[in-house]
Task: inverse folding
């Protein structure tokens, strides 16, 4: 018992340092996220909602090819968004311990998914 207690006490400074390092990384990522232009984020949300409604309408009317074309065009537009570029950089600063909790931001991977299947099929 004494040996276990000794080992625990020996490791406490190491654990404490690791916790401080994790908190510092989280704070750095948070500060980065706070630097993102909120007006641009709101504009992207509004544009995305409008895009989504337009795609759904095209899909309902059987214009899958036109919907797919519009989706690829929209992808190109948002890929150049400064807010999303900054957000991806901020996510890279996330500590490994929390990366699985953060939604995927790899737009190329998302686009590959839509390229394999029709955007209309994905929106069902």
Result:
């Amino acid at each position: 018992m004494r040996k276990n207690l000794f080992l625990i006490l020996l490791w406490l400074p190491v654990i404490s340092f690791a916790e401080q390092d994790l908190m510092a990384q989280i704070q750095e990522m948070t500060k980065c996220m706070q630097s993102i232009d909120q007006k641009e984020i709101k504009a992207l949300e509004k544009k995305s909602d409008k895009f989504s409604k337009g795609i759904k309408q095209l899909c309902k009317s059987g214009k899958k090819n036109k919907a797919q074309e519009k989706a690829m065009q929209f992808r190109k537009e948002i890929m150049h968004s400064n807010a999303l570029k900054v957000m991806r950089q901020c996510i890279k600063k996330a500590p490994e311990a929390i990366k699985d909790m953060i939604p995927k931001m790899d737009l190329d991977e998302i686009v590959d998914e839509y390229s394999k299947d029709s955007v209309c099929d994905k929106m069902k």
Notes: The chain has a mean pLDDT of 77. The two ends are 59 Å apart (CA to CA). Residues 2-122 form one domain.
